[in-house]
Request: fold
Amino acid sequence: MHFIVCIKQVPEGTEVEIDEEKGILKREGVESKLNVYDAYALEAAVSLKETYGGKVTVLSMGPLQASEVIKEAYTLGADDGYLLSDRKFAGADTLATSYALAEAIRRLPPADVIFCGMQTTDGDTAQVGPGIAELLELPHASYVAKIQGIEDQSIELEADMGDGIEELRIELPCLLTVTKELNQPRLPSYRLKKATENREVQIWDSKRLEGANFAYFGLDGSPTQVERIFPPPKAETKELWQGDAEELSRKFYAKLKELKYL
Ligand SMILES: Cc1cc2nc3c(=O)[nH]c(=O)nc-3n(C[C@H](O)[C@H](O)[C@H](O)COP(=O)(O)OP(=O)(O)OC[C@H]3O[C@@H](n4cnc5c(N)ncnc54)[C@H](O)[C@@H]3O)c2cc1C
Reply:
């Protein structure tokens, strides 16, 4: 079986620097790490490989420094890694990101299951997984919290819908986005670290996606544009109100008027 896992490098910590002029996150030179949900997606793929055989390919899009998360994935059991890196891919919104990743997946050996994290800790939209599935016309499930197993070319799983659990059987090939309830990611292995230290990351520029519609890549291919991006102002003062609902709503109304929101 072939499992593909989409992994993204995200800024470390919560203090993200923002380029207010360009409306983008400052990624260059910022301490980065593997998006936490993608570690759960990778663990799911590696465990399935251990049970059913096959291989795990990881795929990322980002600046060259994102190859670090692919190298990390090798120490966690991934076999191959590809990084889409080109100025043409830069500034992509979620649709253009999904398009580039989907076009790369079309050019890889056919996958049985494509895994994504349920969301990232920077963009945080949870749109890319379903976006890739729609572009590839694959069945998909989001918020997968349990995988029962693979049988007869289909996968049985449970998805956490917030107010209930949905039991599903989905035909392969398919795409799944996963939650943190799915498993416990393993720690990087020293043995794999040594064994994979010379393993290459395949860097693909836009030319490797020949045949795709280049107008759909990057900033030009993004139907949404960020008008303004800024860190929310830190609240200097805090007031603690106590009272019954009526009293508190009166107080709240008066405050909104005082601040000229009403
Ligand atoms: C309206 C809008 C405009 C934007 N404009 C810009 C911009 O101008 N410049 C800019 O730098 N960013 C921009 N972004 C951010 C950019 O769209 C996101 O970084 C990117 O599309 C991924 O979205 P996300 O982080 O919300 O992923 P989510 O949808 O939350 O991610 C879900 C999963 O998809 C996979 N995934 C997501 N991104 C990648 C990736 N790059 N490689 C591999 N797997 C991935 C991972 O498995 C991840 O767990 C914009 C976002 C929006 C919503």
Q: What stands out?
A: The domain at 2-216 is CATH 3.40.50.620 (Rossmann fold). The chain has six helices and 13 strands. Helices lie at 36-52, 67-74, 94-106, 128-135, 190-196, 245-258. Residues 6-8, 24, 35, 37-38, 41, 60-62, 91-94, 97, 101, 116-117, 119-120, 122-129, 219, 224, 226 surround flavin-adenine dinucleotide (CB under 6 Å).
